Amino acid sequence: MRIFIIALLLGLSIDSIAQLKEGFDPEEVRACIAMCNSYTFQDLYDSDTDILPEEYHKIFTSEVVGLDNRFQVYVKDEVAVINFRGSTSKLASWVENMYSAMIPAQGIMNIDDEDFSYKFAENTSAAIHSGYALAVVLLGPNLFEQIHKLNEKGIYNIILTGHSQGGSLANLSRAYLENLSEGEISSKNIFKTYAFANPMCGNQEFSKEYQTRFCDTKMSYSIINPDDLVPQMPMHYQEESLFSVQLIKKWIAGKESVDIKNLGRNFFLQKSQYGLMLYINSSNKLIERLITKSYMPIKMPEYTDDINYFQTGTIQTLEPFHYPVNLLAPSEMSLIQREKMKLGLDRDYYKKEPSFYQHKPYNYYVAVLKEYFSEDYANLELRYLPENL
């Protein structure tokens, strides 16, 4: 009997440590995108109570660090969620996005005259987004401290999430944490990643390693709306040549149409790739000096010649977000538009979908409910934030 009880207790202990399951879990996704909206609701309404999932408790919000970055920590039983804030309206946040020259995935950054060794991948050919890498390294001490505190409570199951820039920080933080030296954090920690609408954060070698280590194990996902332009950023190139044999064969066989407009665009992009790389790297030197002058002294590793970004995380797509039919207010209409409305000539008097509507975090939340929780979607009172329309 004693042996049975011990075995039972051991089994319960193992189950508690292994609560995070492999695979895409819509319940986890709904909770994560709700948390991502915490920042939006706080900015707009000074409270995130109406959006946060009841079963999770927010236990920590970090101070603002570096280029306007911060994160939150939530807990549900023996699972924690670390939620990285996305881009804000502050210049520092957009400087981080634009600081897109790649640096090696292993190296040393000098920040405030102190050297910080970092490692985001085993592959020495892997390269990563300078701005996001800098943010992760700056967030590192706070991140480690919160993980240690979670571990002290017996919590080792940790989901990393974020929307937009926050999604990229979630993916890069995953790589950073998984490549720490032994003993820096507990080896018992199990990480899972859900990134929403995230820009790309590394080159092909980084993406391949990330895929093998975290996606093939069904523990990292990127949830993307195909009409959202942000996940296609920064600019990247196709590896194959413009007029490849395979592409010509597809044209002849009628399996792929000839898009003359995009063909000309792609030709221009490929011919200008070297010049664009030189431009990005030289302009990012200016950004590095701007950061040093305005925010903190930094000295980054030499930029790589690679500007060919690839997406990370197993892609899960959502349907493009519906924009409702909304009449312009009379004060927003021109005289001609008012006359057209009276005559019913065309729809020029309706509001046009705003830029980045397809990127808004609340629209991602609504789309997740629509895709995976039809009853909750049907009962949802607020399907659009007025501020997004």
Structural features, described:
The protein has 389 residues and is an alpha/beta fold. It contains 13 helices and 12 strands. It has 2 domains: 283 residues, Alpha/Beta hydrolase fold, catalytic domain (Rossmann fold, 3-Layer(aba) Sandwich), CATH 3.40.50; 35 residues, no CATH class. The protein has a 7-stranded mixed β-sheet, with helices on both faces. A 3-stranded antiparallel β-sheet has the order 6-5-11. A two-stranded antiparallel ribbon has the order 4-7. A hairpin with a 2-residue loop joins strand 2 and strand 3. The longest helix has 23 residues. The protein is globular.
Secondary structure layout plus pairing:
Layout: H1 2-17, H2 26-36, H3 38-45, E1 57-61, E2 71-76, E3 79-84, H4 91-98, E4 102-104, E5 106-111, E6 114-119, E7 127-129, H5 130-152, E8 157-163, H6 165-178, E9 190-196, H7 204-215, E10 220-224, H8 245-253, H9 260-271, H10 273-294, E11 298-299, E12 314-317, H11 335-343, H12 361-372, H13 374-378
Parallel strand pairs: 3-8, 8-9, 9-10, 10-12
Antiparallel strand pairs: 1-2, 2-3, 4-7, 5-6, 5-11
